[in-house]
């Protein structure tokens, strides 16, 4: 069975290791020549194209991994964009975190071109991308999901077809709400414990053995103790995701008060110059 040629657009903190994992698995991969990471990918065996249109003309599957809804819309609809080059019967997979409503619009645009589409955002951060252990939550048809599965299996471990177009992005919004509120809880607890003179390492150790145990307490608790705020996931991007959750809450008339509170805290952290730091740096705001 011939391996499908995969175009990959968005080679950032997450996208670069994801694309490298596809190359390692033997997939022919195409990228954009103007990407900052292009030379590393070309060295690994990727082929470079000057525009999204040119890339789309040569690929069976196209994956985007971009910061926000407008970035994805730009790559798809701009002059020399994907829509101008995408071939009928291709598969488009957006693995960015964008608004569910945008994902549904993109699905319709692709259907008009005879192209199947999935919204398949991921969770697991930079480490998950590097170790190919991402959680992947997909929205779209069963047929498109089955076609994408061999690709997903080279990038992730926990891979679930959630449901119809947009369902992947709705699930990701819920993920980001839980992660954001948990970081807030851990940061508040650590700020209080430090002020009260409690040993944070010992506190983290004992809490990890109890009901407060979480991956955030484990990994981000360690970051907070070590004051290591080099981004695995930037606070400005998490703030964007909380905005998507709040917008989706409005669409369905669901009040999201905890999410709103954490979004305000993240906004304050960004205004104090922490936007490029890891989202665990929310601690710095609370310590002031």
Return the CATH class of the largest domain. Alpha Beta
How many independent structural domains? 2
Ranges where pLDDT stays below 50 over 5 or more residues in a row are none
Classified in CATH, the superfamily of the largest domain is NAD(P)-binding Rossmann-like Domain
CATH architecture of the largest domain: 3-Layer(aba) Sandwich
Strand content: 5-15%
CATH topology of the largest domain: Rossmann fold
In whole angstroms, how far apart are the ends? 59 Å
Largest sheet: 6 strands, parallel
pLDDT averaged residue by residue: 97
As a whole number of angstroms, the C-alpha radius of gyration is 20 Å
Element string (H = helix, E = strand)? EHEHEHEHHEHEEHEHEHHHHHH
Shape: globular
Number of strands: 9
Which range best describes the helical content: under 10%, 10-25%, 25-40%, 40-55%, 55-70% or over 70%?
55-70%
Biggest sheet, spatial arrangement of strands: 3-2-1-4-5-6
* Helix run count: 14
Structural class: alpha/beta
Describe the structure.
The strands form 2 sheets. The protein has a 6-stranded parallel β-sheet with strand order 3-2-1-4-5-6, sandwiched between helices. 55% of the residues lie in helices and 14% in strands. It has helices spanning 15-24, 38-44, 52-57, 69-77, 82-85, 100-112, 125-130, 142-155, 167-195, 200-207, 215-226, 235-251, 257-274, 282-287, and strands spanning 6-9, 29-32, 47-49, 61-64, 91-94, 116-119, 122-123, 134-139, 156-163. By secondary structure, it is an alpha/beta fold. Helix 9 (167-195) crosses helix 13 (257-274) and helix 12 (235-251) runs antiparallel to helix 13 (257-274). The mean pLDDT is 97. The chain starts with 5 loop residues before the first strand and ends with a helix. The protein folds into 2 domains: 6-164, 3-Layer(aba) Sandwich (Rossmann fold), CATH 3.40.50; 170-287, N-(1-d-carboxylethyl)-l-norvaline Dehydrogenase, domain 2.
